[in-house]
Write a structure and sequence with these properties.
By secondary structure, the protein is an all-alpha fold. It has helices spanning 2-16, 25-51, 54-73, 84-111, 114-120, 123-136, 142-161. It folds into 2 domains: 32-68 and 80-111, no CATH class; 113-170. It is built from 7 helices and no strands. Helix 2 crosses helix 4 (84-111), helix 2 (25-51) crosses helix 5 (114-120) and helix 3 (54-73) crosses helix 4 (84-111). The longest helix has 28 residues, at 84-111. The radius of gyration is 18 Å and the shape is globular. 24% of the residues are buried.
Length: 170
């Protein structure tokens, strides 16, 4: 649990650096729901991955998600898909940022454990911040640097000790 606490403290530093903290109770509730859903997804991918390929596991989870969320978009206007640029962007988002990313995540869940794979996913905001700094010219701030360092240290501890206490979070 100590390693995950170090990594989560790093995420907090990255997230809150330079921001005025305003907590919206609904936003906090939705964020907690999202974390539970992400953890359940990792556990589902792990269970399915024991019997099927990682790609098939992702296909099953996303097919179930599509069926469950379809009523939320019923009757919406999808006219924007007639624009080639927007249609191409939708295909990119669907294939690269979702299908490929989650297929890789599913391989990680299968090769490691759901807990370790979810913990490693804490690198996402670090990588996003580094892309912002390197490609978009965002400034490197002290809170970001310290937060990124804490995330990496926390993950290194998990890697060295096999910190299983995080299993209780997933």
């Amino acid at each position: 649990m100590g390693a995950s606490s170090v990594a989560l403290a790093g995420i907090a530093l990255i997230t809150l650096s330079g921001a005025v903290l305003e907590l919206d109770p609904l936003g906090v509730l939705l964020a907690l729901g999202s974390s539970v859903a992400f953890s359940l997804q990792a556990l589902s991918l792990s269970a399915l991955g024991r019997r099927h390929s990682a790609l098939r596991a992702v296909a099953v989870v996303f097919a179930a998600g599509t069926v469950l969320t379809a009523p939320l978009v019923w009757g919406r206007d999808f006219g924007w898909l007639r624009s080639p640029d927007l249609a191409l962007a939708a295909v990119y988002v669907g294939v690269v940022t979702i299908a490929v990313a989650y297929a890789l995540f599913s391989h990680g869940v299968k090769a490691l454990t759901p807990a370790i794979a979810v913990t490693i996913s804490l690198l996402e905001p670090v990588v996003a911040g580094l892309i912002g700094i390197g490609l978009l010219g965002d400034p490197l701030t002290l809170p970001f640097a310290l937060g990124a360092l804490l995330v990496v240290v926390g993950l290194a501890i998990v890697g060295r000790t096999g910190d299983r206490a995080i299993d209780t979070l997933v």
